[in-house]
Amino acid sequence: MPENYIQLRDGRIVRSEAPLNLEMPFETVESFITPTKSFYVRTHFPIPKIDRDAWWLHVEGEVEKPFALNYEELLKLESLTVPVTLECAGNNRHFLEPKVKGVQWELGAVGTAEWTGVPLSVLLHRAVVRPNAREVVFEGVDHGMLDDPKSPPGELSYSRSIPLEKAQRDVLLAYRMNGNDVPPEHGFPVRAIVPGWYAMASVKWLQRIIVTDRPFAGYYQTLDYAYWKRREDTAELSPVTELQVKAEIAKPSQNETVPANSTMRIHGAAWASDAEIARVEVSTDGGSTWKEATLLGESKANAWRFWEFNWKTPTAPGKQTLVARATDSRGQTQPAHRDPDRGTYVINHLLPIEVTVGP
Ligand SMILES: Nc1nc2c(c(=O)[nH]1)N[C@H]1C(S)=C(S)[C@@H](COP(=O)(O)O)O[C@H]1N2
Ligand SMILES: [Mo]
Q1: Which residue's CA is minimally distant from atom 23 of ligand 1?
Q2: Is 0.85 surpassed by the pTM of this model?
Q3: Can you list the alpha helix ranges (DSSP code H) found in the chain?
Q4: CB count in 10 Å sphere of residue 354
Q5: Residues 27-36: pLDDT tens digits?
Q6: In the structure, what pLDDT confidence band is assigned to residue 359 with cuts at 50, 70 and 90?
Q7: What structural domains does the chain harbor?
């Protein structure tokens, strides 16, 4: 695909066709719940065609009573419906300097859907987890060969793990997205939803849940979706896990012209992991001075919160740099600058939006 070729699919930007990667133009964000047809799509392999009547979910590994269950049985179990924000760990990658490899997401590899599913704790309870268990690995049906010379030879399926404690706390096995069956591109018939974690953990097209007694070191846990953590002066690869606090400006959008000497509504969304958004501040002078934005709606755990700020635009035409900064209830805020140890993931430093003030 040519470098700056943009094609829209249901209003989404096609970042790649095979595998299918679609981005929501972030300036179109309007509702707390992102409509399914606007929700970003991230895949690594072709989307598997799954017949739900022939589908089985296996629960195995460090458990006393391994079992498999089908779609009908899953739907009979107790369920919950919760809004959860999913953000790709590579969201905002396009803005990294120098440029890095990977899908060039701008602001829209993020969205919030209402997910209905069975708490994973229910299945783990039924399987009777052994005392030595530490992690839970999710394996997807999707698989293929990678170009990466560091990937294992032959076919690989998409798998990722989470700690057992997280698995038992608030993870869902979701079969509905915004009230309808989870569509094929979002993981039909069933996907994991791991609230508060970057979305690589929310494995789609689930087929196996494997309880392990040691940290899982699969491809997407070590060579991919990992970053450098320092211990003393040694850098160690560490898997990407929880979302980092972030605010994004939806409107005005990059390079938009705004009228001089008027009131302009700046709005966007902010999110964090396992914490509330305590504050969003906005700067209209490239970060020199900050003013508090108004948080809208109610705070919901592990879902984004909308905010707005009324900006009195300057009387004189010219360029202005807008920046938003979120702080969560644990006091964590966005770094001003990029930490290169984070590689091509976990991008939450302050991002400028340049606008032109016109007559
Ligand atoms: N089986 C499987 N699960 C997966 C992926 C995948 O390629 N295969 N991609 C992950 C990544 S990196 C992201 S960001 C989210 C995207 O979910 P969405 O396409 O529903 O937005 O799914 C995650 N789950
Ligand atoms: Mo992702």
Answers
A1: 200
A2: yes
A3: 71-76, 120-127, 164-169, 219-222
A4: 13
A5: 999 999 999 9
A6: confident
A7: 8-239 (3.90.420.10), 246-358 (2.60.40.650)
